[in-house]
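Key result, reporting period 2: structure in, sequence out.
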C-alpha cells in the first residue's frame, strides 16, 4: 500500500468512525441537543401539567434576565452557606429521604434494603437517554429546574424554608443516567435538552410546571426553547 492509499484509508476511517455528528451547517452538534435516541418514556412526576396547561402557563411566566450568582452556595459542610439546605431531606416525615422516594417512584422491580427505604436495585428506563439502567450507582437525581437557575430567577430572595422545600420538591426531581445529569449540570433549556428527543415534551412540561409553582422568571431564550419543546407534544 502506497502512502497516498494509506492516507485515503485513514481519512475514511476517521470520517466513518471517529468524527462527531454534524449538523446541517457542518458544525458539531452540542452535547444534550436533543438529537440522540428517540425512546418514548412517558413518565412525569405527579403534579406535572398537561401540554395545553403548560403552554398557557409558559405565556404567563414573568420575563426576566438571569440574576447574579452572588451568595449561591450548595455546600453544607464546614459552615458553608448551604442556601438550599442539606440534600435529600425527609421533608414529608414519612421516614424516607427524597432520593429514596424518587428512585422507588421512577424505577421498576425495586428492591429495598431490609424492606425499608433505601433502594438497592431495580430497573430504570432513563428518560434523558432512553437507556435501560439496572445499577443504582449509575443513577443520579436531577433537579429539572436547576437550583442555580432557581437562585438566579427568584430564589435568592426567598426565605430559607422555601428554598429547602423547592430543592426537595418531588415535582422537580427525576431519576436519570448519571452521565446525562452531569452533562446537563446547571444548564437551562436553551442550553441543554435531553439527548432523547422523544422526552422533549415531558421535560418542558415539568420545567414549566415547577417555574409556575414557584413564580420564577424565564429569559427570552429559555421561553423560546420551552415553547419549541412543547410544540412536540402530541
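The corresponding designed sequence is given below.
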Amino acid at each position: 500500500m502506497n502512502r497516498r492509499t494509506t492516507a485515503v484509508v485513514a481519512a475514511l476511517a476517521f470520517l466513518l468512525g471517529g468524527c462527531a455528528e454534524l449538523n446541517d451547517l457542518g458544525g458539531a452538534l452540542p452535547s444534550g441537543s436533543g438529537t440522540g435516541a428517540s425512546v418514548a418514556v412517558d413518565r412525569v412526576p405527579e403534579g406535572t401539567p398537561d401540554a395545553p396547561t403548560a403552554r398557557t402557563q409558559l405565556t404567563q411566566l414573568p420575563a426576566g434576565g438571569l440574576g447574579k450568582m452572588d451568595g449561591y452556595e450548595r455546600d453544607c459542610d464546614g459552615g458553608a452557606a448551604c442556601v438550599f439546605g442539606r440534600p435529600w431531606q425527609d421533608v414529608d416525615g414519612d421516614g424516607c429521604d427524597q432520593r429514596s422516594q424518587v428512585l422507588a417512584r421512577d424505577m421498576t422491580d425495586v428492591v429495598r434494603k431490609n424492606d425499608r427505604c433505601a433502594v438497592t436495585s431495580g430497573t430504570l428506563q432513563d428518560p434523558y437517554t432512553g437507556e435501560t439502567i439496572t445499577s443504582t450507582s449509575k443513577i443520579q437525581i436531577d433537579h429539572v429546574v436547576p437550583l442555580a437557575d432557581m437562585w438566579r430567577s427568584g430564589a435568592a430572595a426567598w426565605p430559607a424554608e422555601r428554598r429547602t422545600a423547592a430543592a426537595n420538591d418531588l415535582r422537580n426531581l427525576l431519576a436519570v443516567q448519571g452521565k446525562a445529569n452531569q452533562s446537563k449540570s446547571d444548564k437551562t433549556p436553551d442550553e441543554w435538552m435531553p439527548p432523547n428527543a422523544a422526552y422533549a415534551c415531558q421535560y418542558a412540561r415539568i420545567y414549566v410546571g415547577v417555574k409556575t409553582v414557584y413564580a420564577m422568571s424565564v429569559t427570552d431564550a429559555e421561553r423560546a426553547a420551552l415553547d419549541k419543546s412543547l410544540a412536540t407534544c402530541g
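Confidence is low (pLDDT under 50) at residues 1-31. The chain has one domain: 31-230. This case is discussed further under Risks and Mitigation.
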